[in-house]
Write a structure and sequence with these properties.
Layout lengths: L4 H6 L44 H11 L7 H4 L12 H28 L2 H26 L5 H26 L1 H12 L2
Helix pairs in contact: 4-6, 5-6
Length: 190
């Protein structure tokens, strides 16, 4: 069986001349120059049997078959609340409630930190928090916009708000730990 014309063109070397047994005459402008080896391009038969799926391809098919909201990272995070909640409205309400609780914890942490800061540092933190709220809301909107169904969109948004708020509380505690511990040490007489 003679090779296909595209396979012949794939034998062109990088210098722009035909390779392996051909003359060294430069190819015309109408020839397509391809890399010397294109795996699978010049297979012996156009009816070659299909190759078995790789594990990566199999995993991708499983993910594509899953419901869209199940793929949202904040819903499936190992630290996420509501893992035992049923699907749908019950799970969405669970994330809304968990988000409210995370917001209360953030506000308590924020107030405790503000009490330990001098006025300039307080103002810096206030500005940062206003910007963080804008970021959180925009980020969660972007994540939820990936979903077409209104129910999925609301669930993903609520889960994102809860996770981002919970994470930000941890960040504030990490950043301002020394200020909070310094005051705790004074109370304990250390």
């Amino acid at each position: 069986m003679p090779p296909a014309p595209l396979c012949q063109m794939a034998k062109v070397n990088r210098a722009g001349t035909a390779g392996a047994g051909a003359t060294s005459t430069p190819l015309t402008h109408s020839a397509i120059m391809l890399p010397p080896k294109l795996p699978g391009l010049c297979s012996p038969s156009p009816m070659s049997p299909p190759r078995p799926l790789s594990s990566l391809a199999a995993a991708l098919l499983v993910l594509l078959a899953a419901p869209p909201a199940a793929l949202a990272q904040h819903l499936t995070d190992k630290d996420a609340p509501c893992q035992q909640a049923a699907q749908g409205a019950e799970r969405k309400q669970c994330f809304i409630t968990a988000g409210e609780h995370a917001d209360q914890e953030l506000n308590a942490t924020y107030k405790a930190i503000l009490e330990k800061l001098v006025e300039d540092d307080q103002e810096s933190l206030r500005k940062a928090e206003r910007l963080w709220i804008q970021y959180r809301d925009a980020s969660c909107k972007a994540e939820s916009d990936l979903y077409e169904h209104e129910a999925d969109l609301q669930l993903v948004y609520a889960a994102c708000i809860e996770a981002e708020t919970r994470e930000h509380t941890r960040d504030l505690l990490t950043i301002y730990r020394s200020r909070l511990e310094k005051d705790q040490d004074k109370k304990e007489g250390k």
